[in-house]
Specification:
The structure holds two protein chains of two kinds. Chain A is mainly α. Chain A is built from two helices and no strands. Chain A has one domain. In chain B, the strands form three sheets. In chain B, strands 6-5-7-8 form a four-stranded antiparallel β-sheet. Chain B has a three-stranded antiparallel β-sheet with strand order 4-3-9, with no helix packed on it. In chain B, strands 1-2 form a two-stranded antiparallel ribbon. In chain B, 34% of the residues are buried. The chains are: A mainly alpha, B alpha+beta. At the A-B interface, helix 1 of A face strand 9, helix 5, helix 6, helix 7 and helix 8 of B.
Chain lengths: 166, 389
């Protein structure tokens, strides 16, 4: 019986002491502990979130960098391409111009040559005509004196004319 | 009432261990060792409350701390030290001025107003009771002089001292822990703080939040934490076999009763409309169970009272049972030792092995019972504060 019959004194002291301790702990100790725990947990959660954000930002920066790099590379390539094109164009136009110039020079030369040729031909023609007239004159003179002599003279004159032509 | 089954259990164990060879011997010695060593008495003495804190006995030398006795009776407040009882062998006698009469002065011509003694048998066994002073002077036997009625006994017993020691320790521990939370703000826990933090977090997340709900758990958390650590610490203190441990505090029905009453009062004070409707007018039950005879309300009301009652008995029985079994194994050594010292030594090996095993089990039980009490309290609070189904 004594095992299962609660003692009055113990009930009284337990209620009083446990009540006081419960009050003290609930008023001063538990709020402090639980508050600090909560604060720390929130701090950890916030830090984790911030770290995640920072990581994302770095990722963004990284991709931005990559984009910038790619753009720069593209731009460079574009520039190179343009330069190459410009160079090709320049060379082409230069070539065209040179061709044209050459053609022009050649044409001019041709024209000059033609002119010289016609001039030479006309001069030759005139000389040949003069010579022909001279030969004819001399031939006529020799014909008149001696046949043989005339023939000799004729040959001699023709040889002279030949030399002159050459 | 309790002693009997324990004795049967021990006798059964005795036969189990000794076999038929020693059976004759046991019967012969039964009357002899009943005098010298009574296992049931010894076990009971160790699990119940006491007016003095007995530390050790060596031969005739008793080392025990006398504790103050506080009695309120017939408008008189009487206080004296329990050493006046001489370990329960003598009564404390008082004159008209409530003054204690010293033992050597008893036989002198003095007017003895009343006497108090620790009852040795009957309904109030182990508690303080009045004795008839004239009869005591004649027979010098407490048993012969017992009078009806008991005084209001507010004595600082062994369990009260143990309660105060444990409460001071709990307050000290948690003040230290709270301080380290303050000084190490936002930092990882360290030392005592890191040892207790898993328990605190467990009670908060897995008991309070899970049973009461995210919104209302904070109001009940301080109480749940306090009862958990109170029960857990005292279960462990109870396992320490020497001073200042060894008081079977959580295995005392008065302590568990007060704890259960705290839970009961908090549950019903915080009971919301839905909770009371559920008791008075249980939904989902045919009307004829409520209207002519309020059968369901009666059942619900019984359930209301059963809950704290079960809390009280579960903790008390678990802790006390563990202590009784451990003490039973220890008693075996002395029972067999009384037959023959050699058998006593032999049995002690088995007894110690079992005691070690049981002590480990008891450490587990200490935690489990603290957890169960806290969890059930939280569940009751959760049911009381539930808004609707």
């Amino acid at each position: 019986m004594e095992l299962v019959s609660p003692g009055l004194g113990l009930i009284f002291w337990m209620t009083l002491s446990f009540g006081i301790v419960l009050f003290l702990l609930s008023k001063f100790v538990w709020p402090m502990i639980l508050g600090s725990l909560k604060e720390r947990e929130e701090g950890i959660a916030n830090s984790l979130e911030a770290a995640q954000k920072a990581r994302e930002e770095i990722q963004n920066l990284h991709s931005n960098n990559e984009e910038l790099l790619k753009e720069a590379r593209d731009e460079r390539e574009e520039m190179i391409r343009e330069a190459r094109k410009l160079k090709d164009d320049l060379i082409d136009t230069a070539k065209d111009k040179a061709d044209e110039e050459a053609k022009h020079i050649i044409e001019n030369a041709k024209a000059v040559i033609e002119q010289e040729k016609t001039a030479a031909l006309s001069a030759l023609k005139n000389q040949v005509a003069d010579l022909s007239i001279e030969i004819a004159e001399k031939l006529l003179k020799a014909e008149l004196s001696k046949d043989k002599k005339q023939k000799e003279l004729m040959d001699k004159l023709i040889g002279e004319a030949n030399n002159q032509l050459n | 009432m309790i002693i009997r089954p324990v004795q049967y259990f021990l006798v059964a164990l005795m036969f189990l261990f000794s076999g038929s060879v020693f059976a004759q011997h046991v019967e012969e010695n039964e009357s002899a060792h009943e005098e010298s060593f009574n296992a049931g008495e010894m076990i009971l003495e160790h699990v119940i409350d006491a007016y003095e804190w007995h530390i050790l006995t060596y031969g005739d030398f008793h080392l025990s701390i006398p504790l103050p006795i506080i009695i309120y009776s017939d408008g008189r407040l009487v206080t004296f030290m329990s050493s006046a009882f001489h370990h329960g062998h003598t009564p404390a006698l008082f004159d008209e001025n409530n003054k204690l009469i010293q033992a050597e002065d008893i036989d002198h011509n003095q007017t003895i107003a009343f006497g108090l003694a620790v009852m040795k048998e009957g309904a109030h066994k182990g508690k303080l009771g009045y004795i008839n002073t004239e009869k005591y002077i004649q027979h010098h036997q407490i048993e012969e002089a017992v009078e009806a009625g008991v005084p209001y006994d507010f004595s600082i017993t062994k369990n009260v001292v143990s309660l105060w020691i444990s409460l001071i320790l709990i307050v000290l521990i948690f003040v230290i822990v709270a301080k380290s939370y303050k000084t190490r703000k936002g930092m990882a826990p360290k030392g005592l703080q890191s040892m207790l933090e898993p328990f605190i977090v467990f009670i908060r997340d897995d008991i309070a939040k899970a049973s009461i709900g995210e919104k209302k758990y904070e109001k009940y958390l301080p109480y749940l934490l306090t009862i958990f650590f109170f029960i857990f610490f005292n279960n462990l203190f109870g396992l320490v076999p020497f001073f200042p441990g060894g008081a079977n505090l959580t295995g005392n029905i008065a302590i568990t009763m007060v704890l259960a009453l705290f839970t009961f009062v908090i549950t019903n004070v915080s009971g919301k409309k839905a909770y009371w409707i559920h008791i008075v007018n249980t939904p989902g039950v045919p009307w004829w169970l409520k209207i002519p005879i309020p059968l369901m309300p009666i059942v619900e009301l019984v359930g209301l009272i059963t809950k704290p009652f079960v809390l009280m008995v579960r903790l008390f029985a678990n802790i006390t049972a563990g202590h009784i079994i451990v003490l039973g194994f220890i008693s075996l050594i002395f029972i067999f030792g009384n037959m023959h010292p050699a058998i006593g030594y032999g049995v002690s090996i088995v007894s110690i092995a079992f005691t070690i095993f049981l002590t480990f089990l008891e450490i587990l039980v200490a935690l489990i019972q603290a957890y169960v009490f806290t969890l059930l309290s939280a569940l009751y609070f959760g049911a009381a504060t539930e808004e609707h189904h």
